[in-house]
Amino acid sequence: MENAKLQMIFKNLEDRRVTLSVDNPRNDLTGEEVRGTMDNIIETNVFDSNGGDLTTPVGARVVRTTIEEIEI
Length: 72
Description:
alpha+beta, 19% helix, 43% strand
């Protein structure tokens, strides 16, 4: 079984990195869509971080994990 997570990486007011993860993103996501979502997250200020508000999109990636069960 494979799991996927979209990780959106931001900087906050203290210039620290903050990563927001979304499980099972669509396979056909575009950079434009992700950037628009990240900009919207910053504009609406819906998430708190220990270092203050999110201020800048840094990057995004999809992380895929393959899980193989082993019978014991």
